[in-house]
Amino acid sequence: MKERKFSPSGEGLVQVIAGVLFVVLLIIINIVDPTFYPTMWHLATSGSMEEIAEYIQGYGPMAMVVSMLLDIFVNAVGFLPSIFISTANGLVFGMWPGIIISWLAETIGVVISFYIMRYFLRDAADKLISKSTTLMKVDDFSGNNGFVVMLFARSLPYFPSGVITALGAISKIKPRDYILANLIGKFPSTALEVAIGTDIVNFQENMGRLGIIVLVAAIVYFILWKVYKRYINKRNAEREHDPNA
After folding, report:
1. How far is CA 165 from CA 63, 173, 239, in A?
2. Alpha carbon 6 to chain centroid distance?
3. Residue 67, SS3?
4. What is the spatial distance between Cα 199 and Cα 214, in angstroms, rounded to a whole number?
5. Model confidence at 245, in pLDDT bands (50, 70, 90)?
6. What interhelical angle do 175-201 and 83-93 show, nearest 10?
7. pTM value?
8. Which of 63, 97, 120, 219 is deepest in the core (most CB within 10 A)?
9. CB-CB neighbours of 201 under 10 Å
């Protein structure tokens, strides 16, 4: 087993500077618009797609930009649900524009959240993991297979986004692999959330399409789950024969 290398002291300074800049940004936002945080919290936790849609539409030509910023903020925070905003995007801008906006915004948001969490959680995770052989094996596995694991996790709709981001942040997955896995994996999950959410709101008009979407999605994800399990089992078997695999 290779000895783990901890972050150099210079990286600690970068973490402090990044943390200070992030706090300063939060303060500036509050100074510019004192109602921003209460409004974001209310919209993200209200569960009312109609209210969120009305709020977004109120910005007129800037509605698309405001929607993206709202979705990015919610996903960057990590513990607020973004499903209501994504559904509202489908209601306001139409199915496919809503999917594209939500997909890009959610991807940017979880990438921001990943970097924030990695800066402040990875060092503590390193110290904890280094004390356990089992955790070191799991952590090494996440580094070698992080892209596939993250790709599958992100493709799952309605799964708590913050949990996946936190697991990615304390794992050994490379930032490049994390970003690419999220960019690809977020598309099918976001598309399903927007499509299903929009059709549920307009249930009477889209009942047939909603049924087809749910059925096809169930079949596709069942197949993906089987493929994913086969891949993980194969990799685990390879590691038993070759620890460096």
Report:
1. 27, 11, 26
2. 26
3. helix
4. 11
5. low
6. 60
7. 0.74
8. 63
9. 16
Per the prediction, the chain carries an average pLDDT of 78
Q: Is 159 exposed, middle or buried (0-12, 13-18, 19+ CB in 10 A)?
A: exposed
pLDDT tier at 98, thresholds 50, 70, 90: very high
| Helices of type H across the chain | 9-32, 36-46, 49-57, 63-77, 83-93, 95-129, 133-154, 161-170, 175-201, 203-241
Closest Cα partner for 213 from 8, 136, 75, 221? 221
Query: What is the C-alpha R_g of the chain?
Result: 20
CB atoms < 10 A from the CB of 10, how many?
8
Q: Could you tell me the end-to-end alpha-carbon distance of the chain, in angstroms, rounded to an integer?
A: 12
Quote the CA–CA distance of 66 and 213 in Å, as a whole number.
29
Higher pLDDT, residue 233 or 110? 110
Is residue 6 within 8 A of residue 123, CB to CB? The reply is yes
Tokens matching residue 83: 């499903």
Question: For helices 83-93 and 49-57, what crossing angle results, to 10°?
Answer: 60
pLDDT by residue (tens digit) across 74-95? 888 877 778 888 888 988 998 8
DSSP assignments along 104-143, one per residue: HHHHHHHHHHHHHHHHHHHHHHHHHHTT-HHHHHHHHHHH
223-233 pLDDT per residue, tens: 878 887 887 77
Closest by Cα among 97, 94, 36, 91 to 69: 36
At residue 1, the pLDDT reads 43
